[in-house]
Amino acid sequence: MNILQQRLSKLSPRQRQVLEAALRKAGQQVPTELADVSSAAEPAQDVISKAQLLQDKVPAAIEVKEKTQQFYTTISRQLNSSLYRQHARFLNIGFLDDGSPTERVVELPERVINRACVNLVLEMVGGSPLEGVELLDVGCGRGGTIDTLANLFQPERLTGIDLCREAITFCRDNAPADQAHFLVGDAEHLPFPNRSFDCLTNLESSHNYPEIDSFYREVARVLRPGGRFLYSDILPREKKSRSTAFLRDLGLQLMLDRDITANVLLSCRATGDVHLGAFPQANDQEMMSDFLGLEGSRAFCDMEKGIDIYFIQHWEKVHGR
Ligand SMILES: C[S@@+](CC[C@H](N)C(=O)[O-])C[C@H]1O[C@@H](n2cnc3c(N)ncnc32)[C@H](O)[C@@H]1O
Prior knowledge:
The chain is α/β, with parallel strands linked by helices. Helices cover about 40% and strands about 15% of the residues. The chain has a domain at about 90-265 and about 300-315: Rossmann fold (3-Layer(aba) Sandwich). Helix 5 (about 60-80) packs across helix 8 (about 165-175) and helix 6 packs across helix 7 (about 145-150).
């Protein structure tokens, strides 16, 4: 920890938020060190428990983020103490082929670990050129996307950011290459100057953001003109239409819009039980089924019924914006 980080880490979470908000209001750049300590106080939980994570009232944005942090901190700690620790790099529910055309330009060998999760990354990237780019992965989790991109493409520099300190510590300890860097931070307030990246990826993370439009504004801000936003997530259909219109209004151009729900459902059927086996049985089983998209869970049924859609979009920031 540098001196600034040490000083900032002495502030309470509330004090850090007030400082961050004041800097933003004054149009000042929020230092990376502030973002990096802004989630320091993550209360530890041993198991995923509904009582701790759900509440009756509609929570404010800050409470949603605290609950998200708690959930992923517990998930990451449990994976760290499981047999899969080193290999548990992904937190997404994966993609399996259903016979329809695919977009990936890299074919994996028949037997490969985390095949469905790696394939989801490759489908999200499709044919986008990544050689020599500076790329930011928002909601990077345990670094699976960055690991895949570092191994299979030749980006110049990779940065991963996530709200969950535990996941970022795992990423740093298992960094795939010299060109990869990780920090704790919030997708809705990215601690980077305008026009910093050629490419921004976001995989199965944005559905957690309480103020998703702030994230989209940040995407448009930190991308360079001509830069790409490679986006994949599960959203209710109406919310996805709204988001698409919002991104267009920000001056981004939609290059690809693909429904991959059928492929994700196939993956959930094939991998859900294996993924569940990595976690303690003491976890609330309904919440875990939902998180992993197990057959019969609410998440699975909402996709099957067409209420939610799992999509891939490619956006380009128009030159001159
Ligand atoms: C389902 S996981 C996906 C992780 C990773 N993209 C992958 O495919 O393995 C969702 C991730 O989003 C992160 N996240 C949720 N809200 C966030 C926010 N506001 N800012 C940054 N990351 C966030 C969580 O901590 C979690 O690591």
